[in-house]
Amino acid sequence: MMTVNLGPLAQISRTVRDIKESEAWYGTTLGLPHLYSFGPLAFFDCGGTRLYLHAQEKPGPESILYLRVADIRAAYDTLRARGVAFETWCSAAPAPPPRLRNAFSPR
Predict the structure, then answer these.
(1) Which residues of the chain register pLDDT less than 70?
(2) Global confidence as pTM
(3) In this structure, are residues 72 and 90 in contact, taking their beta carbons and an 8 Å threshold?
(4) How many domains are there within the chain?
């Protein structure tokens, strides 16, 4: 029997209500590099993992994405300046879907 060795995560798929609003949130607000869009689909680079967004009238429930940052305080300041509302220094308050919950720093 062959052993299967899984590699790193290649893609995350999320459903969203409004693709243009989501493109602005992930691209402009969070600063993820936009790869391409067509129709109700948009793709971003999320630290080497492709983030795939698909607009649907009724998006399904989503899991929380935890994103690493090099300097959590600098990331906090930058995201606050872009309009992200935080409950605490590492957890964001509900934002328009899609939403940012947490960021992690290796420190």
Answers:
(1) 87-107
(2) 0.75
(3) yes
(4) 1
